[in-house]
Write a structure and sequence with these properties.
alpha/beta; eight-stranded mixed sheet; seven-stranded mixed sheet; 28% helix; binds zinc ion; Metallo-B-lactamas; tRNA processing; endonuclease; hydrolase
Length: 870
């Protein structure tokens, strides 16, 4: 048996630390923050054997990549997943139930409490050591005010989208949640069963309700079991007519028609396949769990000759001896395992220690469970390897250092924390693509920010300690069985990017040299045009940065949907925030602000964030929002303008429910319901628009916009585009995901910039129809229909590295293609067309990217994912 531990992420701004354990029968992951799935793809780590994820904290840093990961795991054919973590884990997972669900995979959760912290399976014995920060006190949940209601509310739904009629969440002002309760009553482990309305509904505890909802989100329904899954039959020849898993769109529609009434907290609530039930309340639990893992004991080597010599007959009796049973020979003698097996030993012990700050140090160093593995027990067992997730303040703490030392000189310590491991480029494919594109224009396509030098030097902090400590590196492994030791054969040296493009100019590859010369030609043409003076475009200095231009799931080249619009003097506005948006901003705008004169940094964009628009509930459009709000909240002072969120109603429920497990500052965000400001309500001065208007007015004041309307589009329930007109005379329209929409054409008339999805190429019209997306041609038609000055195409199917083909000739709108980390001023969009001849060569069939794409096309896991484009 071979078993090893592998560092996936060392901890960077775009992917918190995570570790994978490899055993023959399955893989385990420890922590799955935002970006983890994308890093698996970048590093070619396969998902198919992943069955268990452990979390050290119920905090978005540790769980933020899990909702997207669960969808992907299901799509690649995993049938059962187990999630292990602390209190509130189930609550956090089920808060995503409005957009995360599959009936091709069952998910089970195990929540460790302070008293029950062990778990065992065929490979591992796990002890969860739960540590609370000093002076931990449980807070009461926030009281959310329900959106304003009116008697007509439920009858005033949009004619084309009945979602607007969805009920206001009841649990926020239900008897269970409205009153203040003691912290004891709020703990799920001590919660009392809730009263049932009818006798035939048995009372359920909060824990049971959560489990029931989880089962509603993830289950193996008979009609969609293993045989229906496209990967299930991959060994036998696959029948091309076999059904594929339903799309989200279909599932939402189906779910909406199967409503069953259930009860929660004594108040009747709607239950749709267990998913749309309101959640019982809870409060954040800030404990951190460290895991002590021990692999199965090594039974030793079986000596056949010795067994035969003792009279044991080969066959079943041999097996019994190996399995630790004594056996009888034909002559009636008893033979014991120790007579024929030698060299047995206990399994290896390894740990992942999460000590998030110095507040946890005393808890960690005094935890009794670790002591046994510091060689103090009768078996003198020591830990083979410890992965530390703590940063500089923890590792330089004298008590923590002394505790590390007590494990002895043989224990291998691995430090996985971004203060020591530096901000290396982890999206290598994206970075290399940015380098090539920067030959076109280094301002529009800047090189991503990185730093290969750590903020703190580990050897200085651990000087004189006499411990074996190494910095984590992505793909570094620690072998556990059969022998032990660090192994770096899969580690790739950090990437360095250069401003100089001579490697393209002098490349041995024909297409790169041709690309370079076409890039130079485009630069010359643009310079000539600029010599005639700039074209007057309203909002010419407004900058649009594409942070994620891919659809469905994050890929190596394109992250999931996000765009940031920066208005001089008026701050920033985000249009969708797919998982990893903060990380993309970090790479685009530069690292944390280190000094006052370093004006341009990710922090500035976050501080100046005025609004976020979430178009619809599909998971590829918003899972990065928690990190963004959390960062914004950390910078918030008394002078900070409020942050506004425009999103569908169910999205507000998600953030409120998640806030019960982690305080990320959502109570400081002002929420505007997309359904209330939909364009036709504004035209009709509908009562719901009137209610939303005051909030909208104050948003206008801080952001400089004079009109913002959402537009109901054709995609899934509660899907919206947005039209935003600025007082400086420019207008931006964003489609969200949609089929070509007449509503959008009408609301977006005269747009300066239309940012429109173009998921599918023109020859995939049927697919576009089925999945309710647009083709390139259709997106351009919408741009022409609304007489948009510029049409930017985005949200491409992940069958990168193709670029969409289109004929710009004779079109009344100027067309551009978005790439991740492309930053373009409105006044420069017209030049994007000049880059097309060069881009066509860069992404031609003979390019490295195209060949890599072909390889991925043949990869079963990725093939399935590409088909799932939402
Ligand atoms: Zn979608």
């Amino acid at each position: 048996m071979k078993a090893y531990l592998q560092v996936l992420s060392t901890g960077t701004a775009d992917c918190p630390p995570s570790v994978i354990l490899h055993f023959d029968s399955q893989r385990y992951m420890i922590n799955c923050g935002e970006g983890t799935q994308r890093l698996c793809m970048q590093q070619k780590v396969r998902f198919s054997k992943l069955k268990t994820i452990l979390f050290t904290r119920t905090h978005w840093d540790c769980i933020g990549g899990t909702p997207g990961m669960l969808l992907t795991l299901s799509d690649v054919g995993i049938r059962n997943m187990r999630l292990l973590g602390g209190e509130n884990l189930t609550h956090a997972i089920i808060s995503t139930r409005h957009f995360v669900y599959r009936n091709t995979m069952a998910v089970d959760t195990v929540e460790f409490t302070k008293d029950s912290g062990s778990y065992r399976d065929e490979n591992l014995r796990i002890t969860a050591v739960q540590v609370y920060p000093d002076n931990f006190e449980r807070s009461l949940p926030y009281e959310w005010s329900a959106p304003p209601t009116s008697p007509n509310r439920s009858n005033s739904s949009s004619p084309s989208n009945s979602a607007a009629a969805s009920p206001v969440p009841k649990h926020r002002d239900s008897p269970v949640t409205g009153s203040k309760r003691s912290s004891d009553e709020l703990s799920p482990s001590t919660s009392t069963p809730v009263a049932a309305v009818e006798d035939e509904h048995p009372p359920k505890s909060d824990t049971e309700i959560r489990k029931m909802i989880l089962e509603g989100m993830f289950n193996l329904s008979k009609s969609n079991g293993i045989n229906a899954h496209p990967l299930a039959n991959k060994k036998v020849k696959r029948d091309p007519r076999a059904p594929v898993p339903q799309t989200d769109v279909d599932m939402i529609e189906a779910a909406r028609t199967v409503e069953t009434s259930h009860t929660c907290g004594g108040a009747p609530v709607k239950l749709v396949n267990g998913r749309f039930m309101d959640l019982p309340r809870t409060t954040p639990n800030t404990s951190a769990i460290s895991y002590i893992c021990q692999s199965a004991d090594y039974v030793g080597k079986f000596n056949k000759e010795a067994a035969v010599a003792l009279g044991v007959k080969p066959g079943k009796l041999f097996g019994d001896l190996v399995n630790g049973k004594s056996v009888q020979t034909q002559s009636g003698d008893t033979v014991h395992p120790h007579q024929v097996i030698s060299g047995g030993r206990p399994g290896r012990v390894f740990m992942v220690v999460d000590c998030p700050s110095t507040d946890y140090v005393s808890g960690v160093v005094s935890a009794k469970d670790f002591e046994r593995f510091q060689g103090t027990g009768s078996d003198k067992l020591t830990a083979a390897c410890i992965v530390h997730l703590g940063g500089h303040s923890v590792l330089s703490h004298p008590e923590y250092k002394a505790w590390m030392q007590r494990f002895g000189p043989e224990t291998q310590h691995i430090i996985a924390n971004q203060e020591y491991c530096s901000q290396k480029l982890i999206w290598r494919s994206q970075a290399q693509s940015c380098y090539k594109l920067s030959a076109l224009d280094s301002n529009i396509f800047p090189l991503p920010y990185y730093n290969n030098t750590p903020t703190h030097v580990l050897s200085t902090d651990l000087q004189g300690l006499g411990v074996k400590a190494d910095l984590a590196e992505s793909m570094m492994t620690y072998l556990l069985e059969p022998s032990t030791g660090l192994e770096r054969s899969e580690v790739i040296p950090p990437l360095e990017l250069f401003k100089d493009h001579s490697s393209l100019k002098n490349s041995p590859k024909d297409y790169l040299r041709e690309y370079y010369s076409l890039a130079m030609k485009a630069q010359e043409e643009i310079a000539k045009e600029k010599a005639f003076g700039p074209t007057e475009v309203p909002g010419k200095d407004v900058v649009l940065t594409a942070l994620g231009t891919g659809s469905s799931h994050p890929s190596k080249y394109r992250n999931v949907s996000a765009t940031i619009v920066e208005t001089p003097k008026h701050g920033t506005f985000l249009l969708d925030t797919g998982e990893g948006t903060y990380g993309q901003m970090f790479r685009q705008f530069g690292g944390y602000r280190m000094s006052a004169d370093q004006a341009n940094s990710v922090d500035d964009r976050i501080k100046n964030l005025k609004g976020i628009f979430i178009s619809h509930l599909h998971a590829d459009h918003h899972l990065g929002i928690v990190t963004l709000i959390d960062r914004w909240n950390q910078f918030r002072t008394a002078d900070t303008d409020p942050l506004y969120l425009i999103a569908p109603l169910k999205f507000n429920s998600f953030l409120q429910e998640l806030s019960d497990t982690q305080d990320f500052g959502y109570q400081n965000v002002r929420y505007i319901q997309s359904e209330d400001i939909v364009h036709w309500r504004q035209l009709q001065h509908d009562h719901r628009y009137r209610i939303a208007r005051p909030a909208l007015m104050s948003l206008f004041e801080t952001s400089g916009f004079k009109d913002i309307q959402t537009v109901d589009v054709i995609h899934c329930p509660w899907a919206y585009g947005i039209s935003m007109t600025h007082k400086d005379g420019w207008k931006i329209v964003y489609s969200g995901d949609t089929r070509p929409s007449q509503n959008l054409v009408e609301a977006g008339q005269g747009a300066t910039v239309l940012l429109h999805e173009a998921t599918f190429e023109d020859d995939m019209e049927e697919e576009a129809l089925k999945k309710r997306h647009s083709t390139t041609k259709e997106a351009i038609m919408v741009g022409e229909g609304m007489e948009a000055k510029h049409t930017l195409l985005t949200h491409f199917s992940q069958r990168y590295p193709k670029i969409p083909r289109f004929d710009a000739e004779g079109k009344s709108t100027i067309i551009g293609i978005c790439f991740d980390l492309m930053s373009v001023r409105f006044g420069e969009i017209e030049y994007l067309a000049k880059f097309l001849p060069a881009l066509e060569v860069l992404y031609s069939p003979q390019s490295d990217e195209a060949k890599e794409g072909e390889e991925e096309d043949n990869d079963a896991e990725l093939k399935i994912l590409q088909k799932q484009s939402q």
